[in-house]
Specification:
The chain is mainly beta. The chain has one domain. The protein is 13% helix and 49% strand. The protein contains two helices and ten strands. The longest helix is centred in the first third of the chain and has 18 residues. It is globular and about 45 Å long. It starts with 6 loop residues before the first helix and ends with a strand.
């Protein structure tokens, strides 16, 4: 008798194995032991615009990604949004990232046709931090075959342990992406943002 397995079940099984391995090795959960607390809005001077960025990435790798749901951020018009916060050590762009924002009668477009990165490790060997606030509309992974629409699984497992995973056809509406290095060496010349491409602003 031949057993036919759903590709989505294969994805869930692979992620579940990652969780079990991390727990068995004693890696702490990002949610474990964390008391429920009211989300803290982002403060001045970092106030994202109320019009989100529409971000697409053809191929990427997220390194040590954790997920926090129901995070409240304050926007530049004084309003707040409750959304999802994604935190990475590094976001590696393997091919074609496009960012578009339409606001106040103009359109901002950032296009990175090839490779790029956000975050990583500084010259002192310390990890930098990239944080993204927003909603992922689609993401695909490959487990034998290409499977799309698995952002719910990534959100779930990313809220339990840090995940490192490759992904394709990322689509998201993102309020802000911020990369910081809080502990760079004084002589560090590493740039935590490396996005070679073009920036274009158009008006009607």
């Amino acid at each position: 008798m031949r057993v036919v397995r759903s590709p989505l079940v294969a994805v869930a099984a692979a992620l579940l194995l990652a969780v079990a391995t991390a727990v068995w090795s004693g890696q702490p959960s990002s949610a474990a032991g964390r008391a429920a607390a009211a989300p803290e809005p982002l403060g001045v001077p970092f106030l994202p615009a109320p019009d989100p960025l529409h971000v697409t990435i053809a191929s990427m790798v997220a390194v040590s990604m954790t997920v926090d749901k129901n995070v409240t951020i304050r926007l530049s018009d004084g309003t707040t949004r409750t959304t999802t916060q994604y935190t990475f050590t590094k976001l590696k762009i393997r091919s074609h990232m496009n960012v578009t924002q339409r606001a106040a009668g103009h359109t901002l477009t950032i296009d990175v046709p090839d490779e790029g990165s956000l975050g990583g490790y500084d010259s002192a060997g310390k990890p930098e931090t990239t944080t993204m606030w927003g909603t992922i509309g689609n993401v695909c992974v490959r487990v034998l075959v290409k499977i799309c629409g698995v952002q719910g699984l990534l959100d779930f497992f990313g809220s339990l342990i840090p995940l490192t995973a490759g992904a394709e056809d990322f689509v998201g509406d993102i309020y802000a992406i911020r990369t910081v290095d809080d502990h760079a060496a004084l002589d560090s010349t590493d740039n935590p943002v490396h996005l070679p491409g073009t920036i274009k602003v158009t008006v009607p």
